[in-house]
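Notes continue from the previous slide.

Worked example: a multi-chain complex. Inputs as given:
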Amino acid sequence: MPSPSKRELIVDEALKLFYRHGFHATGVDAIIARAGVSKKTLYSHFRTKDELILATLRKRDELFRNKLMRATERRASEPRDRLLAVFDFLADWFHEKDFNGCMFINAAAEFAEQDNPSHMLSAEHKRLVADYLCEQAELAGARDPVALSHELNLLMEGAIVYAHVMGDKRSAERARDMARMFIDRQFD
Amino acid sequence: MPSPSKRELIVDEALKLFYRHGFHATGVDAIIARAGVSKKTLYSHFRTKDELILATLRKRDELFRNKLMRATERRASEPRDRLLAVFDFLADWFHEKDFNGCMFINAAAEFAEQDNPSHMLSAEHKRLVADYLCEQAELAGARDPVALSHELNLLMEGAIVYAHVMGDKRSAERARDMARMFIDRQFD
DNA sequence: CTCTATGTATACCGATCTGTTTACCTTGGA
DNA sequence: TCCAAGGTAAACAGATCGGTATACATAGAG
């Protein structure tokens, strides 16, 4: 049976390359070269490149949401404060040297059809982030947690686009200021 | 000298294909086939595919901003109302059958480096849209037109991402409701 | 020691990519 | 009528694509 560490190695390198250069622009040859693995090994773990892309997106989803949850829970202990702390997490993320936007927005751009598996997985990721926000909003005792989570999520997406397309990293602070209005409105 | 109508034909077909399938995934062979033009003709008008991509993005920018301005000015005569009408334009756009997100967000996803010409052109497009919003905010007599235009623009980007990645077309209405708060705040 | 599993390295497949070249056609103007 | 401009169709070049196959190395278990 295939060694799990090889598989992980491949996914990790694919993650970096897909995120930096895009999915279509990254060939499997580049991935195996960086992973130090033969092509046969790659195709023993993944039937096609598309399957590798899906595995990569799943790992990215797991890593990203863990990072988001850890960061916000480290910054703030009260759920209501965590709703704001999400935007501090964004600010840090935007300033990472290899920031290249949201990988799932990028994936949806390259796999435009709504029924494409990679596109669907991207939508699922966004839904899971919104679920986390909703959960925190509930814990905070917001009047309408669902509506609030959608508002905050929409602000996050806007900030990410601003930061990536226009290179304006202050968008995290702007979105944070905007978010405060919607949070406060839930607790008057 | 090359006939202008041929060039236009090529750009128009490239626009459709790039928007629908992405830039890397669309080959020049598909473009010339759809345009009914020989490869030599394409390369007499554009030195490389990248140059064609840039010309395509320039045309998209022109078409999109004209459509945005016409639609908002048709819907509302007062500048302050136009700021809200932008989100009605978004709603209509999201419901077009060939809606595939914002072509410039998609371009920035495929050409991730900030100094890539296509990425820079995408940033410029976003800046020009923000300029239009700022102009309308000024005409409306907003207290801080620059800040308001950034807020509205960020809401627009968020709504677009929501609509494309998650397929949630109601995001235009949600963003509109959110926008009202920031607009009203400028005129108390 | 030997067999088997797992891996590497590499050649190869057919398709497709961007871009060039060749040969031929059509059309308008002097 | 003839010529040049601008076009088409198609072959071609060289690289790269995703994916397969072959040959060989290595290491652990019996």
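Summary box: Chain A is about 75% helix and 0% strand. The mean pLDDT of chain A is 95.
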